[in-house]
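Subject: for your reference before the review

Hello V.,

The reviewers asked for a structural picture of the protein, and I figured it would be easier to keep everything in one thread rather than splitting it across files. Below is the amino acid sequence we used in the manuscript, unchanged from the supplementary table.
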Amino acid sequence: MISPQNPMLRKHQNDALTKLQKVISKGSGRGKIILPTGTGKTRIEAETICCIMEECEREFNWAGIYVVLSPRILLAYQQLDEFLKFIGTKKIECEYIVVNSGGLNSVEYERKLLKLGFSHPEEIDSTTNVDSIVVNIVSANKKKIPLVIFSTY
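And here is what came back from the structure prediction:
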């Protein structure tokens, strides 16, 4: 799963990416990214998910379902925003959903998103409804594209 050095990432991000991918490829399927605020953890995460998506498609002919967890609702949306920017550069089609009880569909939150620099202030599907989540899973599977679920822990 180790990808070549990504020119979009800085050296410390590529180093962290390589280490994370080595941990994941050992079979645990999980790892941690511990870096100071503002050093690009979300980019490393997005690159890792994209590498895994490509590998699953190549080896298993299955796009997969990916879960990205954040400690706060606003951070889940920040991760989604960065992820969408990143996969856009990779030309990867996927579906996404935010699963939490505090959707950012109100005018107040849209203003907050714009003020914070989010590039996707439009209404984002946020739910805790199991039927809605299943609809997203079925839709992604029919299209044979990955589904990325952003949520809080």
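For the response letter, the relevant points are probably these. The chain has a mean pLDDT of 78. The longest strand covers residues 65-70.

Happy to draft the paragraph if you're swamped.

O.
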